[in-house]
Write a structure and sequence with these properties.
The chain has 729 residues and is mainly beta.
Amino acid sequence: MRMPGLSRRAVLAGAAVAGTVTAVPSLQGRAQAAEAAPPYRWRTAVIGGTGFVTGVLFHPSVPGLAYARTDIGGAYRWDDRSARWIPLTDHIGWDDWNLLGVEAMAVDPAHPDRLYLALGTYAQSWAGNGAVLRSDDRGATWTRGDLTVKLGANEDGRGTGERLLVDPRDSDTLWLGTRHDGLLKSTDRGAGWAAVSGFPAGPSATGQGVTFLLAVGRHVYAGWGDSDGTSANLYRTADGTTWEAVPGRPSGTSAQVPIRAAYDRHTRALYVTYANAPGPNGQSDGSVHKLAVTTGTWADVTPVRPGGSDTFGYGGVAVDARRPGTVVVSTNNRWADIDTLFRSTDGGRTWTSLKDTAVFDVSETPFLKWGGEQPKFGWWIQALALDPYDSKHLVHGTGATLYGTRDLKNWAPQIRGLEESSVRQLISPPAGEAHLLSGLGDIGVMYHERLTASPLRGMAANPVFGTATGLAQAPGRTEYVVRTGWGDNGNGAFSHDGGRTWAPFTAQPGIAKDAPGPIATNADGSVLLWTFVHWDGTKYAAHRSTDNGATWSEVSSFPKGATPVADPADPTLFYAYDTDTGTLYASTDSGRTFTARAGGLPSGDSQFKLVAAPGRSGDLWLSTKWNGLYRSGDGGVTFAKADSCWASYTLGFGRAADGADYPAIYQVGATETITAVYRSDDQAKTWVRINDDAHQWGWTGEVIVGDPRIYGRVYLATNGRGIQYGEPV
């Protein structure tokens, strides 16, 4: 998953990062951020999951109540009456984007309406500190407490157990396990935190620290992921003050990490899953062990031992609150024989693989067929939950969805309302069946026949991509669309029916396999221009094709790594913005050669977006992150700066307002102090904010586009909350 840019706070602390602003005339205007915005209704375009669900937690005291956490897309509450997930963290704003990753969650069995979330996506030096949110109304409203440590919801180990726990003896006391800072304790329901000085384990550079916290009767158990192989990796306290290593470390786990644990209170047995890496990737060995907590006796209850070509670890574990001795565990990172759930009804003496009898129905989310294949039972299965009020209601997470069953045989996605894709490209065609095409992280390109149902065709096939890197439509020939991305059987494709069906490029430049980048097609679809950027930032020469990708030629004069932009009206014109030098380049010979035009523009950062106004030749807009918005009416020979906003992160166009002769402009930017979503109906002279404080979705700086057929409708890419679209009420 991608990392967004720095916040405005970082800019104020070091504005030199933004580069040099050229001295150009201003487009006179004024901001209207203080005006009452027109009421907008915001909804999520339905795809169905698409991201890694890292944890699911059924409430032990309330039937039908459950919560889910994700690595970059926030937390959700299950609404049993509507059978859908309700997002709980969409209020998190731009400056707090790092808090959209949920490291852990906790509920209080004695107070059913209380919910706690530990937030923090990255623990790196450039990321902000974590925070704990606490709610008394199941996540409808929140009180925030900031931490002085960092959390890592999108780092290795993000699928381990819950690192946050309400103490079983005192509802005001909370425990929080961290990756680099040991164990923390709060005695005021998460408002303040202090390090637990008596916790015996010390963090190491691996960044796992506490892997789970679990109430076992009135004791608290803590899994430890930074063991050196000889020291303990499981600790407990009986009084909340004194911690000790659990005696008798299971044999064979010296090189393994405790991943998750579950306690069967009827048989007083603690089940612990282990793997030789925290996951979700990199696991090749693992085991399951049972501790009789009254006697301290360990038993190896591993269902199947990894070995040979069948390598994997163990991940999720859940016990049946209604049936003593019934336990379910998941394999993880098992690619040869495919991951499964093992279920035992006799305390782990014998096991049955639920995959072997599983019947799938993914009609609600067809992308799970991965371009025509039958859906897999799962991969990256670390989130696993068993309904305490229904012994046959199991839910398990994968890298792309949540599967649920009510009879242990028939499985279907239990994912309505939960969308976690990282969105990279959006197109709203001016004609045709679909109002939206999207390019996504991990699941390629989608053709959205409707916004309220998952695309019928699923992931664009022939070939299937993982992450999409480019998506473009010919402005004067809207049935022609091209796409690029990371794929095993080719990295580019074209469509002659608006993106419904595809054909692969019959050839591609050699660098395309390792560094597929963005692509553009000119106004009549006769020329393709493809650029290449490796994931490590290395930039390569662009290539050009005039035969749907059958042959390619290098364009040495194109600025390496720049994103090509086609003129919407003139097929001979292309543009590119060189972010390294702050120079606009243009081609007047259909992309064969490029020459420099305007220079001295902002430079030094990749967060610049060059956009051409639809239907107009040479009308270019440049959003330049912290340097605001620029416009050129002469194809990039000169630019004028708009003074109506001080920051512009991404910009797009939609249908003009009634009586207006210029398209509506949408942007994610800042007109005064708030980074938000804005619309202008007067060519960026004035703006109105169209989102609200409840709908912010963290970082939203990738792409925004209005609908050319419906005034006021806008599509917004998020980094973890899928595609949001808004319309005036």
